[in-house]
Amino acid sequence: MIHQILPVGLLQCNCSIFGDELSKEAIVVDPGDNIEDILAVLRRHALRVTAIIITHAHIDHIGGAAKLKAATGAPVLMNASDQELYDHLDVQASWLGMEAPTRTEIDTALRDGDLVTLGPAEFRVLHTPGHTQGSVSLWIPAEQKLIAGDTLFRDSIGRTDLPGGNPRQILRSIEDKLLTLPEETIVVPGHGGNTTIGREKERNPFLQGL
Ligand SMILES: [Zn+2]
What we know:
alpha/beta, six-stranded mixed sheet, 7 helices, binds zinc ion
């Protein structure tokens, strides 16, 4: 499977572009910004987007969703508990001193246990609240990969001091939903470099008390 990670926007959110070589279908996760660059990758591989998945409604992850949907016609998928955050995209933009991007309708509400398919691969939706109430992670067993949004980072975890954040809940989500995945699973966080479940279990200072 094609998988390109593109750090986008002011906060360098990791946008993931997955493509199935055979069907030429693609899933884009967290198109926060730089939609022209994302479209260029899609064109280079002749990919057609079938789903735009949002791990959570912070502006650096969702800011470009409307533009990408307009360019590709693909539906936007997000957990409904982050709708209120998305409704206040203008407030989030003002925190960063940015102009508010246009918003779009969320086409499909993602729930824990949902499956989104790309060619022969399954993207399994894990509801992992704590950074925000609607935060989801995506486990792709066929690729041994986890797209972790802002829930789990290399040596760190997502901040919980913004509206909708809950420090005890994020630890419970990580312990119950993420640390139970195979240790060799590659973790692609919402920002910064990749890691593995095994490495974070062993070394992440925020998880040592679990
Ligand atoms: Zn975030």
